[in-house]
Write a structure and sequence with these properties.
It contains 11 helices and 11 strands. It is α/β, with parallel strands linked by helices and 307 residues long. It is globular.
Length: 307
């Protein structure tokens, strides 16, 4: 990273985001205090609402709209946004959901954390709109963790040592440190990483694309760093209530594991995930029922997002 204020671009992915994008954009001025905010790219996945009209009304930021032309997914929109940037003139790119709001001064600590050698991705502390913790840090996917989560659930497993993939205990969010990966609602990526490992994998559409990108960066020796001095408010998506999105999340999680591990390990992981979702489906959880169907019947999986 060059001396002086870090040179940052922000890529925000939108899709029918009219209700949240103004709040996101309005937070950027104070949120970027202390850095040189060079570009704000709104990569739009063919919104049908007034999203782009709202974006056009914001005149105090260096905003540029990139129209993807279809609902191509999160990774494809990020790639479209990054493609119009001259990354050689930047230190880092912040990838941001439209339902995020930067707290004042939150971008600088992320950028400063990337000045240390080996750090390639920086993730903030995510909070809900009421200020409560939103668990966003993850450990490496593993068969043992999948089995434990199937039996006792991800939230509880995350509180007991390192048994769960999701980090859920509040004390783990009080200190900065290296993590396997973090949710992609807000992450600052060094342009050195972008130049070295290339584009995001568009085959995931939604969910696990940030996992794949972070683990691929890790394969190349880059650290994902968690920085709690940076606070970002995240309203949150529909995967906890929308069966289609929930099933896509689960299927992509298994798909990524299959790509990175041996066949025996994948089969064990797959069976553990199926078991966990089946147990919750038997308890009447609708999103788990949809996930079991998608896991067992590939023809019922989501391969394209609706426009």
């Amino acid at each position: 990273m060059t001396p002086g204020p870090p040179r940052i671009a922000i890529v925000i992915v939108t899709y029918n985001s009219a209700q949240v994008i103004e709040g996101c954009l309005r937070s950027l001025g104070e949120g970027a205090r202390g850095v040189n905010l060079v570009h704000v790219i709104v990569a739009d996945n063919n919104s049908k609402d007034d999203c782009l009209k709202v974006v056009g009304e914001v005149t105090d930021l260096p905003v540029q709209v990139v129209q993807v032309g279809r609902n191509a997914g999160y990774a494809a929109a990020i790639n479209a946004g990054v493609e119009v940037l001259d990354v050689a003139t930047l230190d880092a790119v912040l990838v941001l959901n439209p339902d995020c709001r930067l707290r004042p001064g939150s971008l600088l600590p992320l950028a400063e954390s990337l000045r240390r050698p080996g750090r390639g991705i920086a993730a903030p502390l995510l909070v809900n709109p009421d200020g409560s913790l939103q668990p966003s840090l993850r450990r490496m996917p593993a068969v043992g963790r999948a089995v434990v989560e199937a039996v006792i659930g991800g939230n509880l497993a995350g509180r007991i040592g390192t048994l769960g993939e999701m980090v859920t205990h509040p004390r783990e969010y009080a200190k900065a440190g290296e993590v396997a990966w973090a949710t992609g609602a807000a992450m600052l990526i060094s342009t050195d990483v972008i130049k070295e490992i290339g584009a995001w994998d568009e085959s995931f559409l939604l969910y696990s694309e940030e996992t794949e990108f972070s683990l691929r960066a890790r394969d190349h020796g880059w650290i994902t760093w968690y920085e709690p001095a940076s606070v970002v408010e995240h309203i949150g998506g529909d995967s906890a209530i929308n069966p289609m999105l929930a099933s896509l999340l689960i299927v992509n999680k298994v798909k990524l594991f299959r790509r990175r591990r041996s066949t025996p390990a994948f089969l064990a992981y797959y069976l553990a995930v199926v078991l966990g979702e089946a147990l919750r489906a038997l308890m009447g959880r609708r999103i788990s029922k949809a996930s079991v169907v998608a896991l067992l019947r590939p023809s019922r999986r989501v391969h394209k997002l609706a426009d």
